[in-house]
From TrEMBL:
Higher taxonomy: Bacteria, Pseudomonadati, Bacteroidota, Flavobacteriia, Flavobacteriales
PANTHER family: PEPTIDE N-GLYCANASE PNGASE -RELATED, SECRETED PROTEIN
Cofactor field: Ca(2+)
Sequence ranges assigned to domain Glycosyl hydrolase family 92 N-terminal in this UniProt record: 50-268
Protein name: Glycoside hydrolase family 92 protein
GO cellular component: cytosol
Organism: Taishania pollutisoli
């Protein structure tokens, strides 16, 4: 927040930031400004010097520094961590021990996996247990210092403190380890450890000769069944070998006289034969370590030289080319040299049409900027990615969400393969199987999963039924838009597409309106017709995905004019943005490590915010986009290990920088449009795959001159704040003239087109204005909507309302338990909304509760009286109905104003063991009767949760008391204790989740 004060003045109308005191650095001898003279990418070898693979290895970037080819199957890198969130890639810059070098790594994810097939070079008496599992007696692993560690594209080296120098390089599917041992006369050994990291399901190591080893490692972690097969060839005969730990480890000893040992390793997800073929075809006998390293460097040069920037700032040059490098580390090649690959059905398939298959699709992240970047510079691979989606649909019946190693993880939300497909298609990638994707997109959108059915039928997702309901509603609306654009474009190309199908998705694209609360101006969770309360826009909770309402309320990138109108028009959008960027950065609710890089409540460290800075382009103050983008470019990307503000997320964090530094950003993939922002460099030459060159120039550009004054395309004045892909690929030059102050002329430039009119069939779903469905003696029911000019009809008898039902004129009162249903009607279009329904019921009278235990604020339900409000929760702990108590018993007293006789009393708890929520071991009730007598009863848990046999469900503890008036009831729910040994996180304290004390 040290930049908050600088931003605030501009965001509130001041131009103080334009007087930036930072000076332009003097030109150095890098001569980057002359790079555009090169036409052969191999002449641009200096670009390798501007890639720093250590960026993101510190902080929460979660990147790895090791060797990989662009989009390569193998990522050969050191492992310094066994587990943990900041060890997702297997490496963290703050560590001082390298345990070994493994062959698969994830770049910047928020969940750990991979790091398969660990190779451990050793000198002296070999050790077979890792140091992290045997810290007292000592295990394998060597200390190191970063001063003796280097990394560049396709190459990694480190000299360990035990004297062993390790060097790594790769081809696409294979790699070479080169170990140089100290001249100490001690034993030289290599340990192959298959037990490293995740749970083994099946494994095997086979020695084929003194130099050849093959094997298999099938494991379960994030990917529930990951197959890795390997084939290893050593440069020297092993003199001894020993299988250890039931054959999960192989220790190879080599002559003490050798100084250098090479291991050549091929991997495959298909079988051991595939691994051997990958190795033999890609690493022939005549290839040396140096020749392989150079060949992979050449592959990287080809990718890096697609953009030649002109700058004298070495750090910014490094930030740019490292970002480009990170953007090309994933997705990863998944098919073998013979075209075979493992499908989502677990079977082996043969790729056709010479299309490679890929894996690691972090689509919730990468659809935003990484895949749009590929539509410019990786068209052939984009075709392969979409062909991969095609095969994944054929093998599983669903388009991918977050596919990993032949497994669908269903991590994150939405189905943004729709965005990748639509964006590529509208940008001219027409050779895909259009009829299959028409079917695949419709099928995926209509599957009964993750709240899709409610979204499709109700127009929003009920937060009582589905977690992250707001985020899912908004992102499904965007995905619906992408399907609409794809279907519309396909029909224009002559494919058979029913208008009725196009209209369905056109209507669904506006469902985000149903999550908008006009009273607060925020997107909010709702159950039926009621907004979930209490509500704080800064609160991070389970109604949003890794975010809060501040960060999600502007998520309608496909329909910005409609979103703007909800906020009061362009001026209202500007004011909302000003408030966002100037708000306090303090968060409430759940602790969420992903929400980082804060400017006010904007969070650059996580993807939901990534388009927001560009929304000023849709207001009367487009210069404020330049202010925010400039601040992010300079303050949230650094040439340091902790130089990223959040997880790299398989390229998205870097792709934002790459696009934005060129003055472009795809606010809404699927439109084929790029918004202008703030170019960072004096010039940049874009070299497309068809040998087309585009020069982007920023005249008078400097740290002070951040504001666009004028734009020319091919020398002609261009009065738009955006450019289409077709225009971009068709031009030769874009020239920005920059200045120190906002330009009045630029404010007149045209705004990018976006969905700006509602279909006649769309009518905003109404809502009840009540804060709760429970009330004291009576309550007043109000009905409203985010829509305009609507009429409401309602019923109180449970029947479905129509225009023949009672017409709503003003709030009405109910005094008894009542089911209220309502619809909105548009008299102009004669269309109805979906029906909303809620059960309103009076609270039990004459009852009070005193809790002696403190619930977690993020699991507060309706607050202090939640356990006696008459509202029961669902099987889903994230619905907001449950109160959560961590690592404690739960005790309290219920007092009745008048003595009451009960047939049954009970306490309702939740079982959701995967989330550390266990039912109480026992519940004790002490009843105090009006006659002065007491009764104490303890109810034990009938069936304790078991591994593999503990479904999510409510558990009720009930007792039938004596038939005489009760004055008060004391209760005590005993915490289950720590997670049992069978749990994924054994030994950690558990939660008790309660929703209701009930009486009959």
């Amino acid at each position: 927040m040290k930049y908050y004060c600088l931003l605030l003045s501009v965001l509130l109308g001041s131009l103080a930031l334009s007087q930036d005191k930072l000076t332009t650095p003097k030109r150095n001898t890098l001569r980057l400004e002359k790079a555009d003279q090169a036409t052969d990418y191999k002449k641009d070898r200096y670009l390798l010097n501007y890639v720093n693979p250590f960026i993101g290895t510190g902080g929460h970037g979660h990147t790895y520094p090791g060797a990989s080819a662009p989009f390569g199957m193998m990522q050969l890198s050191p492992d310094t961590r066994y587990q943990g969130w900041d060890g997702c890639s297997g490496y963290h810059y703050s560590d001082s021990i390298i345990y070994g070098f493994s062959h698969s790594h994830l770049s910047g994810t928020g969940v750990e996996d991979y790091c398969d097939l660990l190779i451990v070079p050793q000198t002296g008496e070999p050790k077979t247990i890792p140091g992290y599992l045997n810290p007292e007696k000592g295990g394998y692993g060597a200390t190191f210092s970063h001063q003796k560690e280097k990394a560049s594209p396709g190459y990694y080296t480190v000299e360990l403190d035990n004297g062993i120098k390790a060097e790594l390089t790769t081809t696409q599917r294979s790699g070479i380890h080169r170990y140089t041992f100290p001249k100490d006369g001690q034993k030289r050994s290599i340990l192959i450890d298959l037990t490293h990291r995740d749970k083994l399901l099946k494994y095997g190591i086979q020695e084929l000769s003194k130099r050849e080893i093959s094997g298999v490692r099938i494991s379960s972690s994030w990917a529930k069944e990951q197959h890795l097969y390997f084939f290893i060839v050593t440069s020297t005969d092993a003199i001894r070998s020993q299988l250890i730990d039931d054959g999960a480890k192989l220790l190879l000893e080599f002559p003490e006289t050798i100084e250098t040992l090479e291991l050549r390793v091929g991997i495959s997800a298909v079988d051991e034969k595939g691994a051997q073929e990958n190795l033999m075809k890609e690493l022939t006998e005549d290839q040396t370590f140096e020749s392989v390293k150079k060949a992979t460097e050449d592959l990287w040069l080809k990718e890096l030289s697609a953009v030649i920037i002109d700058t004298t700032d070495k750090n910014q040059a490094t930030n740019f080319y490292t970002a480009l490098y990170h953007s090309y580390l994933a997705p990863n090649l998944f098919s073998d040299v013979d075209g075979r690959y493992r499908g989502l059905d677990g079977k082996i398939h043969q790729s056709n049409n010479n299309a490679n298959q890929y894996t690691v699709f972090s689509l919730w992240d990468t659809y935003r900027a990484t895949h749009p970047w590929y539509t410019l510079f990786q068209k052939e691979r984009t075709y392969d990615f979409i062909t991969t989606f095609e095969n994944q649909f054929l093998h599983s019946g669903d388009l991918p969400v977050w596919e990993l190693a032949g497994n669908e993880t269903h991590c994150m939300i939405g189905y943004h393969s729709a965005s990748v497909i639509a964006d590529a298609y509208v940008k001219g990638l027409k050779q895909i199987d259009v009829p299959l994707f028409i079917h695949g997109l419709e099928t995926t959108a209509n599957l009964d999963e993750f709240g899709k059915t409610d979204f499709n039928n109700q127009g929003f997702i009920n937060c009582k039924k589905e977690p992250e309901s707001v985020s899912k509603t908004l992102e499904y609306a965007y995905d619906s838009y992408c399907i609409y654009t794809f279907l519309s474009a396909a029909k224009q190309e002559g494919f058979t597409v029913k208008d009725s199908l196009i209209n369905i998705f056109y209507k669904r694209a506006f469902n985000f309106i149903n999550s908008f609360d006009p009273q607060t101006g925020f997107m909010r969770p709702r159950h039926g017709g009621i907004w979930h309360s209490p509500f704080k826009p800064e609160e991070v909770n389970f109604h949003f995905t890794e975010a809060n309402s501040w960060q999600y309320s502007l998520y309608a990138p496909h329909a910005i004019p409609v979103l703007s109108q909800l906020l009061g028009g362009p001026e209202g959008l500007k004011k909302w943005l000003d408030n966002l960027f100037s708000a306090s950065s303090k968060l409430a609710g759940n602790a969420q490590a992903d929400i980082t890089g804060l400017i006010g409540q904007y969070a650059h460290g996580n993807e939901p915010s990534h388009h927001i800075a560009y929304l000023y382009n849709y207001t009367g103050s487009p210069e404020k986009t330049a202010v925010i983008v400039d601040s992010i470019l300079y303050h949230y990307y650094h040439n340091t290990p902790d130089g990223l503000s959040g997880n790299e997320d398989c390229g998205q964090m870097s792709s934002w920088f790459v696009f934005s530094s060129l003055g472009l950003y795809p606010v809404s993939p699927g439109t084929g449009i790029y918004d202008f922002g703030r170019p960072l460099f004096k010039s940049a030459e874009l070299r497309l795959e068809n040998n087309k060159k585009i020069r982007i120039t920023a005249v008078n550009n400097s740290k002070n001159n951040k504001y666009i004054q004028e734009i020319k395309v091919d020398g002609k004045t261009y009065k738009k704040r955006y450019i289409t892909q077709k225009e971009l690929e068709g031009c030769k030059s874009i020239e920005f003239t920059m200045g120190p102050y906002p330009s009045a002329e630029y404010r007149t430039y045209a705004v990018a087109p976006s969905m700006d009119s509602l279909p006649a069939s769309f009518v905003a779903v109404p809502y009840f204005t009540n804060q709760s469905t429970s009330f004291e003696k009576q309550t007043s029911i109000g009905i409203s909507s985010a829509g305009k000019g609507l009429t409401f009809y309602y019923t109180l008898d449970g029947s479905t309302p129509s225009n023949q039902s009672k017409k709503y004129k003003k709030p009405f009162t109910i005094k008894h338990a009542t089911t209220v249903k309502a619809i909105a009607y548009n008299p102009e279009t004669k269309q109805y909304s979906e029906v909303i329904s809620n059960d309103f019921r009076p609270k039990p009278e004459g009852i009070s509760l005193v809790l002696k235990s403190v619930y977690q604020q993020q699991y507060a339900a309706s607050g202090d009286g939640a356990l006696i409000d008459g509202l029961f929760g669902t099987h889903e702990f994230r619905s907001g109905d449950w109160q959560g108590f961590y690592n404690m018993d739960v005790a309290g007293t219920v007092t009745f104003q008048k003595g009451k006789t009960f047939n049954k009393i009970g306490l309702s708890a939740l079982q959701s063991t995967r989330s550390w929520i266990f039912p109480p071991k026992s519940v004790a009730f002490t009843l105090v009767y009006e006659d002065g007598t007491t009764e104490t009863v303890t109810i034990d848990l009938e069936e304790h949760p078991k591994a593999g046999n503990s479904p999510e469900k409510p558990i009720r503890f009930e007792h039938q008391p004596n038939q005489k008036p009760v004055k008060s009831i004391q209760f005590n729910a005993v915490n289950y204790g720590v997670n049992p040994e069978w749990h994924v996180s054994p030994g950690y304290p558990t939660y008790i989740f309660l929703d209701e004390l009930y009486f009959e």
